[in-house]
Amino acid sequence: MPLFDLPLDELRRYAPAVPAPADFDDFWQDTLHATAATPVLIDVRPEPTDLRLVDTWDVSLAGFAGDPVRAWYTRPSGVDDPLPVVVEYVGYGRGRGLPHERLTWTVAGYAHLLVDARGQSGQYGLGDTPDPHGATPGGPTPVTRGILAPEGYYYRRLVTDAVRAVHAARALPGADPTRVVAAGNSQGGGLALAVAGLVPDLAALVTSAPFLCHVQRAIEITDAGPYGDIVTYLAVHREAEAAVRRTLSYVDGVSFARRAQAPAHFGIGLRDTVCPPSTGFAAYNQYGAGTGGPAPQRSLHVYPFNGHEHGDATHVRRQMRWLAELLSGTVDRHA
């Protein structure tokens, strides 16, 4: 894939106006308040595995509307001290999979909560969390499900699940509730970014190729999925454009980024047609700009010759080193 978006020097300055709805903050405050009184942990039980160096728990947490959301919680075996928790969100079409599939953060010395994505199992990975609200008007895919109104939109539920997972992580055995990190790639990166904008005392954000950023531009410059699913929906439902654009404005990562306060580490590939680079730069360049306080510390790694895979294992190593330095106090939390 050749370079198709803005030149890198323009990307580094790219901070477009992405207006949030006037009731954006009230919408999310009301959404999260609706489940705030519901106990966040439904069930936490040890999970027998063949893994000798980590301990695993099968977790059910109460997400949007109290719906059960599944997650794997892992910790290094034999470690009694409370540990920082990396709450990781999965990519589009994926699920939490099997307990041994994602162990990087655990073997790096963290507790790790891997959160399922409701109603997405089967495309790229296994999951076991249903979405009982799937009958709202819209298209057949997750990104178009309920897209005609923000109240019924699928990502309202998924973002709520993501925030609730942070609260669940703080209540899990062996977790340090003051050091909870939101992490993810693609859809997971978009969810982690939303969490950073909605949870004021998050310890850190680790995001790469974040989905749902500057969405109005994304659906105009790429037809790769999942954005392509929105394009396909509008190609048939031509009269729905205004309603769809309004709904998407309530979940745009740029609006969440402007409200975020936690130190942040980003990764972007310049040949990414799935989550175009300008959309990620739009969020990065405005990260923390709307808080009125000191700018949070932020770091960005750019991969000029990579697409949606960005830096792969090289980038993960950079994430681990950055987070270890941040949590040890050797990285200033403010820019």
From TrEMBL:
<dbReference type="GO" id="GO:0052689">
    <property type="term" value="F:carboxylic ester hydrolase activity"/>
</dbReference>
<feature type="active site" description="Charge relay system">
    <location>
        <position position="308"/>
    </location>
</feature>
<dbReference type="InterPro" id="IPR008391">
    <property type="entry name" value="AXE1_dom"/>
</dbReference>
<feature type="binding site">
    <location>
        <position position="92"/>
    </location>
    <ligand>
        <name>substrate</name>
    </ligand>
</feature>
<dbReference type="InterPro" id="IPR029058">
    <property type="entry name" value="AB_hydrolase_fold"/>
</dbReference>
<feature type="domain" description="Acetyl xylan esterase">
    <location>
        <begin position="1"/>
        <end position="325"/>
    </location>
</feature>
<dbReference type="InterPro" id="IPR039069">
    <property type="entry name" value="CE7"/>
</dbReference>
<protein>
    <submittedName>
        <fullName>Acetylxylan esterase</fullName>
    </submittedName>
</protein>
<dbReference type="Pfam" id="PF05448">
    <property type="entry name" value="AXE1"/>
</dbReference>
<dbReference type="GO" id="GO:0005976">
    <property type="term" value="P:polysaccharide metabolic process"/>
</dbReference>
<feature type="active site" description="Charge relay system">
    <location>
        <position position="272"/>
    </location>
</feature>
<feature type="active site" description="Nucleophile">
    <location>
        <position position="186"/>
    </location>
</feature>
